[in-house]
Amino acid sequence: MVADSGFARQIEEQPESEKALVSAPARILVVEDEGIVGLDIQSKLEAMGYDVPTVVSTAQDAIASAERLRPDLVLMDIQLEGDMDDVDAAERIGADYEIPVVCLTAYSDETTLARAKTAQTFGYLLKPFEERELYTTVEIALFRHRAGSEKAELEERVCQAQKMEAVGQLSAGIAHHFNLILQGIIG
């Protein structure tokens, strides 16, 4: 369960100038096989201003919901019940849909930590956690994902600019040679 510290109230009381910096609330998919815990996390996130359209309880439902809803972030328990491995689901959500995943777990043993690392997640949150820890983890994961996406976009723009520069240089070279040929023909 998430401890109630009144932290969501502090977020709501932010000055309007700070709220204006955020466009639409981030959409978060919660994947938790303990129903009451999932609903509690959903409630806390919504109180913090996030959009949490659903809580699902299996890895299969997580993948289907990620495809359908395209959330900005997935909070996923890494000890889910069911046929499909939760780490595989986290990897697939990240790879197929480019959605960051934060692992939630009540276990801090080396095996669980190693599984979380394997999934290449954007964070790891040990249950039970405080609201502030949840908020901080979500914000950092969202920021890291946005920064990574912006970096990839800038790298793509640089690559395109370099290609255009090469085409321009090639065109200039061809035009120069064509002019030389024309001068030789015309005299």
TrEMBL record:
<protein>
    <recommendedName>
        <fullName>Response regulatory domain-containing protein</fullName>
    </recommendedName>
</protein>
<dbReference type="Pfam" id="PF00072">
    <property type="entry name" value="Response_reg"/>
</dbReference>
<dbReference type="InterPro" id="IPR050595">
    <property type="entry name" value="Bact_response_regulator"/>
</dbReference>
<dbReference type="GO" id="GO:0000160">
    <property type="term" value="P:phosphorelay signal transduction system"/>
</dbReference>
<dbReference type="InterPro" id="IPR001789">
    <property type="entry name" value="Sig_transdc_resp-reg_receiver"/>
</dbReference>
<feature type="domain" description="Response regulatory">
    <location>
        <begin position="27"/>
        <end position="142"/>
    </location>
</feature>
<keyword id="KW-0597">Phosphoprotein</keyword>
<dbReference type="InterPro" id="IPR011006">
    <property type="entry name" value="CheY-like_superfamily"/>
</dbReference>
